[in-house]
From TrEMBL:
Lineage per the UniProt record: Bacteria, Pseudomonadati, Pseudomonadota, Alphaproteobacteria, Rhodospirillales
Protein name per the record: Cytochrome c oxidase subunit 1
Keywords: Electron transport, Heme, Iron, Membrane, Metal-binding, Respiratory chain, Transmembrane, Transmembrane helix, Transport
Name of one Pfam family that matches: COX1
Cellular localisation: Membrane
InterPro entries per the UniProt record, alphabetical: Cyt_c_oxase-like_su1_dom, Cyt_c_oxase-like_su1_sf, Cyt_C_Oxase_1, Cyt_c_Oxase_su1_BS
Alphabetical list of PANTHER family matching this protein: CYTOCHROME C OXIDASE SUBUNIT 1 (PTHR10422:SF18)
Entry's transmembrane regions: 36-56, 76-97, 118-139, 159-182, 202-227, 258-278, 285-303, 309-333, 353-378, 390-412, 424-445, 465-487
């Protein structure tokens, strides 16, 4: 992909090079600075959620409840779940990397609705403050799923307040999703056809469709819980003609597609990193692009596999089981295309690629165990055990956060104009990958043996596995903390990055680092596909291989 015009060196001063006032940040409509605002806010929420996870792992090191009471444990894992799911994992890549990179990737000067973009951040901050207040001032004991009838009829905790916060943050997600959809449709540079877009743009587009279509369902279901608690309307209370299983159907109709809100952007980030560090055109570009759309579509038809033991009909259970197996097909296509792209590539083992490879490994483990949960008989055996906990952490946390960290390291030089220290970055990537496996792999075994989730006390025979998990969590926590220090250090002391330190293709690498306010002096004209790579250090142009040539 080439452009007819780039920014001259004189245009290099940008948001990080000027002494901007606090108000200039709080009133900005520059998509790049809003992405950085999200980065700071989400980092704070991530470590708050991580602190709650630390308390959980400390409690589970011994079979008896000697750190937290039963009620305290319930409130701590609710804090962990609510913060990590709705205030970090769902918005992590779209609202940070997506905000910063998407307009640059498609040759636009900003998102379609800059003021709406800023408003989405303010909504997110307001909802975050509200959630933290109610979670810490009295707490919530329902878990992050707010299952009825306990949440709507029996819990005396701050359920309504936290539900209101999650309801509000949904507007932030919807605003971002609408912004991305319109931007991709209407603001692509001349010559950038749909099949010249980078794969990350396809992933963000598919993710935005899921956000816009699914988030209102979550909002309605949570609003109904609050309405029943406040007004006593019989929606989920059987004594008033309600049905508690209705909430599960509504909740999982959103929450299983929400898994793909978390993972689809990570798939796009992984594709960009692998193409760059393997120096190869993406194998099967159209297959991997359409697989993102297929995942978004099929994802709306698998929610019932969360309810195999909830009393649904045998026919419905079989249909949901088959749909859950079907969604593995486009996911497998992606893994195949990544592997084929790496095959015989001119590979440079930098930190972003280590994170991308970690994403693939963790995603494959999570995907295979997901097939186990899609099997009716096996799911009945491991439902509500630590097997399920481990499975969704491999997907939602292990894979998703690895991709987020990989993308952050990949585009950090573009975002800041500075390079980070490579050795600490590689060490942090290894700590995260190894620590995550040590933390959650033993939980598969504990769950298969019957250790139930949501209990702060457990039989003695599970202690060894829990101690292993807690030890792995220590390594994992160190790996997550390290980038906070060396990336911050790089802002002042890092080597100048230059415009394109990775020799990557794409319009974002044709502008200065960091990019100027309006990105491009002139809107570029795209003449080639997204991934016309040549070996590291090579000069001049190189003919791009076709899919058929790569396959041969």
């Amino acid at each position: 992909m080439t452009a007819t015009a780039t920014n001259p060196a004189s245009q290099r001063p940008t948001y990080l090079n000027h002494a901007y006032t606090l108000w200039s940040w709080l009133s900005t409509t520059d998509h790049k600075r809003i992405g950085m605002l999200y980065l700071g806010t989400l980092t704070l929420m991530f470590f708050i959620g991580g602190l709650a996870a630390t308390l959980i792992r400390l409690e589970l090191m011994t079979p008896v409840g000697d750190v937290l009471s039963a009620d305290g444990y319930n409130k701590v894992f609710t804090i962990h779940g609510v913060i990590m799911v709705w205030f970090f994992l769902v918005p992590s890549i779209p609202n940070t990397l997506g905000n910063f990179i998407l307009p640059l990737m498609i040759g636009a000067r900003d998102l379609a609705f800059p003021r709406l973009n800023l408003a989405s951040w303010y909504i997110f901050v307001a909802a975050s403050i509200m959630a933290l207040y109610f979670l810490l001032a009295g707490g919530v004991d329902t878990g992050w799923t707010f299952y009825t009838p306990y949440s709507s009829m029996f819990s005396n905790s701050n359920v309504t307040g936290v539900i209101a916060a999650v309801f509000i943050v949904g507007f932030s997600s919807i605003a971002t999703g609408v912004n991305f959809i319109v931007t991709i449709h209407k603001m692509r540079a001349p010559g950038m056809t749909w099949f010249r877009m980078p794969i990350l743009c396809w992933s963000l587009y598919a993710t935005s469709l899921v956000i816009v279509l699914a988030t209102p369902v979550l909002a309605i279901s949570l609003l109904l819980v609050a309405l029943e608690r406040v007004a006593g309307v019989g929606i989920f209370d059987p004594a008033l003609g309600g049905d508690p299983l209705l909430f599960q159907h509504l909740f999982w109709f959103y929450s299983h597609p929400a898994v793909y809100i978390m993972i689809l952007p990570g798939m796009g980030v992984t594709t960009e990193i692998i193409a760059c560090f393997a120096r190869r055109r993406i194998f099967g570009y159209r297959f991997i692009a359409f697989s993102s759309m297929a995942i978004a579509l099929i994802g709306f038809g698998v929610w019932g596999h969360h309810m195999f033991v909830a009393g649904q009909s045998a026919v419905a259970a079989i249909v949901f089981s088959l749909m859950s197996f079907l969604i593995a097909v486009p996911s497998a296509i992606k893994v195949y295309t990544w592997t084929a792209t790496l095959y015989k590539g001119d590979i440079r083992m930098a930190a972003p690629l280590v994170y991308a490879l970690s994403f693939i490994v963790l995603f494959v483990i999570g995907g295979i165990t997901g097939l186990i949960l899609a099997s009716l008989a096996l799911d009945v055996h491991v439902t509500d055990t630590y097997f399920v906990i481990s499975h969704f952490h491999f997907i939602m946390v292990g894979a998703s956060v690895s991709a987020y960290m990989g993308g952050l390291h990949f585009w950090w030089p573009k975002m800041t104009g500075r390079m980070y220290a490579e050795r600490p970055a590689l060490l942090a990537a290894l700590f995260i990958g190894i620590g995550f496996v040590l933390t959650f792999l033993p939980q598969f075994w504990a769950g298969y043996l019957g250790m139930p989730r949501r209990y702060h006390e457990y039989p003695d025979e599970f202690q060894v596995l829990n101690v292993m998990s807690s030890a792995g969590a220590g390594i994992l926590g160190l790996g997550y903390a390290m980038p906070l220090f060396y990336l911050t250090w790089s802002l002042r002391h890092g080597e100048p990055a230059g415009d394109n330190p990775w020799q990557a293709t794409g319009l974002e690498w044709s502008v200065p680092s960091p990019p100027p306010k309006h990105n491009f002096v002139e809107i570029p004209v795209v003449e080639h596909e997204a991934y016309s790579y040549r070996p590291f250090g090579a000069q001049g142009s190189e003919r791009v291989e076709s899919d058929e040539e790569i396959q041969r």
